[in-house]
Amino acid sequence: MAAYILRRTVSTVAVMVMVGMFVFLLLRMAPGDPAAIIAGRSATEEMIAGIREQLGLNDPMLLQFIHWVRDMLGGDFGNSIFAARPVLELISQRLEPTLSLSILTMILSVTAGVSFGVLAAWRTGGLVDRLLTAFSALGYSVPVFVIGYFLIYFFAIRTHWLPVQGYKPIEGGLGPWFTHLILPTLALGLGFIAFIARVTRASMLEVLSEDYMRTAAAKGAPSYAMLVHHALKNAGVPILTVIGISFAYMIGGVVLTETVFNIPGIGRLVVDAINNRDYPIIQSVLILTSGLYVLINLTVDLAYTLIDPRIRY
Amino acid sequence: MRLSRRNLFKLGAAAGTALSFPSIVRAQTAPTDVRTVRLTMADLTVFDPIFTTTDPTQTHGLNIYDTLFALDSELKPQPQMVGNWGVSDDKKTYTFELRDGLGWHDGTPVTAADCVASIRRWGQAGGQLLMERAKDISKKDDKTFTIVLKEPLGVLIDMLGRIPAPCPFIMREKDAERPFAEQVTTNIGSGPFKFNESLLKPGSSYTYDRNEKYVPRSEPSNGLAGGKVVKVDRVIWQNIADQQTSLAALQAAEVDFVELPPADLYSMIESDPSLELQVLNKSGTDMCLRMNCLHKPFDNVNARQAILHLIDQEAFLRVTAPDPRFGRPVTSIFGNSTPYSNDENTGWFKKGGDPEKAKQLLKESGYTGEKVVILDPTDWAEAHAACQLLADTLRKIDINVELASSDWGGLVARRGNMGSVENGGWSIFITNDPDYVQGEPPSAVFLNASGDKAWFGWPKNDEYEALRGKWADVGTLDERKTLARKMQRVWWDFVGDVRLGQIVTPVARRKTLTGLIEVPATLIPFWNLQKGSV
């Protein structure tokens, strides 16, 4: 197991390095000039040239790459071209909102999705199952921003129950933190609830038709024990896989949700950076995100061993 | 007591219900404090107003820095940081004395040395004309400095009070000693607001606290001139990227002001009794079509004239400013709002354009179907819509059009390419510039026709440039108006660019927020703002 974790950790670093190189080259080859964007729409060519020189953007690409790799190895992710502040400082400021939103969304998605899925499989063809099917179709097909606008309209503008937008740090109190995240979590979570519920239902149905489930029923095992101890545990591997995938997919959904609800998170940071061609931010966020992806996959792989003792690495 | 599964479930359900019960969270959306104003504006990505020309940075500078002179509501420069000033008989030596009570936010006094360093730094970015004419800029004592010119410069005071970016803001000497291309990030000014670094959230919100030590001028507030009296304790500048969300926040009283409300929701704003649309910048911006004068087909004056005659400004305004209250044609190269706006040589303007005349001129230009590449910025809604319409309009007179779509960042990279379209160049791009800026021909980028030293498109006309060169030396308003007519006559003959209309954009505010100062620029002064109880 230890050797496996070590191997995967090393591969994580390799993936991050490759992503870094790819992103660096891609950004330099893509059209766009940060100096021109900084200088503004009405800037003269002299102003733009002066800024470009100052930022080192006239240096050969190879030299820029060498400087970047050297600084990265020293733990220096560089400064934002626009904000003139360390990239890591900007990322750390944005980490809490994104983590808060992601974790709350995962908690909601997993608890609601698995519960709905189990219930639908238990009463297959019944009302719950049919409602789940309808809900899943809705959750899949309605984009996050549409759900977001609806939620804002009903719960913030019409009723004033919840705030429209913004984020309150957790250090300011659990109440404000939580209330600012209710609508974003619901908007982002509905699609994932539908996804996890559908997979849970399908996986549970397969397990429920197994002989050992019939045996357990014949022996008089209560429904709860049958569903949770026997069926859900055996249906767990595909469910865990989709939860891992959902976490990875969530990074895309977070960008939209943060925009709609004006949450100053990593998603907003990277979108603004792409619009501004703020290379150091884009590079750093994408490298860290790729590392996160690999780590999530590793965590999911390790979690398999907890629910299925036959799996060994 | 043993906690059973059933009890645990009950406990969880009760906790969930309590947390989601709406009444306990109602307080979170309570109206903001009356001494704090929340403004939703475009993001402030750069803090140094000399380093960039972007509007948000100029607004930031306007509120934390001060200027030597400031424009009043009639666009006349009035002393702001300057107490007394005078000019020698030969009009070559200007002497300025700072008024009393000026101090930096760090507690040190503003000195003449700060002013000298600031003027020199600004001179590299926006005051090149002054630097070309200046023989010496130096301090005489702590409160007095002089500008000695090689030859008279009639527009010197106008330049020191100008609002086209970059504005000549006065910074501390140690900040202003940096090259203009090196960003100043200390945010210490001498203006009516202090920037609160501890509450800075880059990309999200920026907080400005009242500078309690600021001494306003005694004159009443008048445009950007007069006393800058601060009537609130704090202004919070929020960047809400999504326009729909910013409007929802305004409706829910989470913010007091939205700088750029979505045009398709104007009617909804006007139907809400607590909200109001207000035009603060009545001069707005002029949309402009820049043609690449270096390459076919627009290296030929007849081809450029064809475009001038073809364009139906009202049709373009329908896509860029759908509400007719906020857009109107502009036929003068000096815009609609400047004192130099005139109707010289504007016979080309016809309702609906003149496609037949355009076809004839295009034929005379010798156009043989060369590809015309329009740079189309898809992330700028107005320009993107105008590009789509332009492509359609050009095709109607059989021009071979190709739209090169990219975001604005991609466009600015490509527009600097002086090569032909086969070599990655371009033929047309659409942009805008403030209307009032067109009243400053020495610095207005649209009004430069010096060939490869001109702005993108590189129009060249020596006769026009000779006239433009006289601008700085003309002393009176009437003489400048006469010169403006001559310049315009030549401009519309060689067609340095084509205008697509003037657009003004209203802001949306809650009616409880008052005291917004009307400025002929996309600048938002924070002083004078007042907030009533809600």
Question: Would you kindly provide a written description of the structure presented here, covering whatever features stand out?
Answer:
The complex is a heterodimer of chains A (313) and B (534). Chain A is mainly alpha-helical and 313 residues long. Chain A contains 13 helices and no strands. In chain B, 28% of the residues lie in helices and 20% in strands. Chain B has helices at 5-20, 22-25, 55-64, 112-125, 128-133, 156-160, 173-176, 243-251, 266-271, 301-310, 313-320, 355-364, 381-395, 408-415, 462-470, 477-494, and strands spanning 36-40, 66-67, 69-71, 77-79, 82-87, 93-98, 134-141, 144-149, 169-170, 193-195, 205-210, 234-238, 257-258, 275-278, 285-291, 327-328, 371-377, 400-406, 428-434, 498-503, 507-510, 513-514, 530-531. In chain B, helix 11 runs antiparallel to helix 13 (381-395) and helix 15 (462-470) packs antiparallel against helix 16. Chain B is globular, with a radius of gyration of 26 Å. The model of chain B is unreliable at 17-31 (pLDDT under 50). The chains are: A mainly alpha (313), B alpha+beta (534). The interface between A and B is large, with 61 and 62 residues.
Briefly, what is this?
The complex is a heterodimer of chains A (313) and B (534). Chain A has 313 residues and is mostly helical. Helix content of chain A is 78%, strand content 0%.
Which short descriptors sum up this protein?
heterodimer, A: 313 residues, mainly alpha, 13 helices, globular, B: 534 residues, alpha+beta, six-stranded mixed beta sheet
